[in-house]
Amino acid sequence: MTREELTIPERLYKVSGHINDILMFPMFATIIMESSGAGGQGLQYLLSSSNQFFCITFFIEWFLGLVSSRERKTYFFHWSNLVDLISTIPLGHLFQGLRIFRLMRLFRLLRVVVRAKRYRGKGEELLRVVAIVGATIFAGAYTIQIVEPQMVDSFVAALWWSLVTVSTVGYGDIFPTTTAGRTVAVILILIGVGVCGYVAGFMTNILADEEDDSDRLDRLEDKLDILAHHLEIADWPETRLQRAQNMAQSSEAE
Fold it and tell me: Which end of the chain is more exposed for a tag (fewer CB within 10 A), N or C?
């Protein structure tokens, strides 16, 4: 479908998608600042209001996608669109005292992975790796800070713990002591095994692609040499015949 054939809801949906792609960065900045307790009560209120604004913009995009979809039922029940819808519900603000509802913000991290998978172009694999690794580490840090706040004294410490846990290094300087915290750690370790394997496969593909490109150039050069050799052989009898004709013409002229 060309640009001229797009309906108004479809155009608005594309525009809102681009806007929300840009808003992903300040959204995560506000979550980090709010989680780390930066600033006073005024700043925390501003951060909370900003998060509500992001929920509204994400819901507008989801709603426009539903309106412009030709298969609305399929659109509504698709898992990625359900993730988008749940991530627009500001349950973390409506129920600040309940940990389970604060964890609903993790759906915004899934939104990052989903958006990365939609991207097609140069560096798409790298973008997916960054999205998966970043979302996993951030989710682990945010979760452990909620379920076991006594373990970490800052969000930076939570990020450090999540990083070493996902990488399955486990320095032991910070460790969970409750059942909920250990459950989070087990989940991160299991995810980390898959993530590290994905990253290793990605790096292997990069090296393999470089080797393949070098091999392709070598094979191309060999084929060009063979082709040039065949052209010389094919041209040699014609050149010899031309020389004989020239000599015959010279003799007749004499």
Answer: C
Residue 34: name the closest of 57, 50, 56 by CA: 50
Record the tokens describing residue 212, joined without a space.
């393949």
On the question of pLDDT at 84 being above 60, the answer is: yes
What are the phi and psi torsion angles at 123 (to 5°)? Answer: 80, 20
Cα atoms in the 13 Å half-sphere on the side-chain side of 158: 24
Distance set, CA 244 to CA 186, 231, 234, 238, 250 (Å): 87, 20, 17, 10, 10
Q: Which residue has the tokens 């690794």?
A: 133
SS3 string, 113-180, reads HHHHHHCCCCCHHHHHHHHHHHHHHHHHHHHHHHHCCCCCCCHHHHHHHHHHHHCCCCCCCCCCCCHH
Distance separating alpha carbons of residues 147 and 101, to the nearest angstrom: 12
Residue pair 21/48 in contact (Cβ under 8 Å)? The answer is no
Q: Which residue has the higher pLDDT, 248 or 210?
A: 248
What SS3 state is found at 96? coil
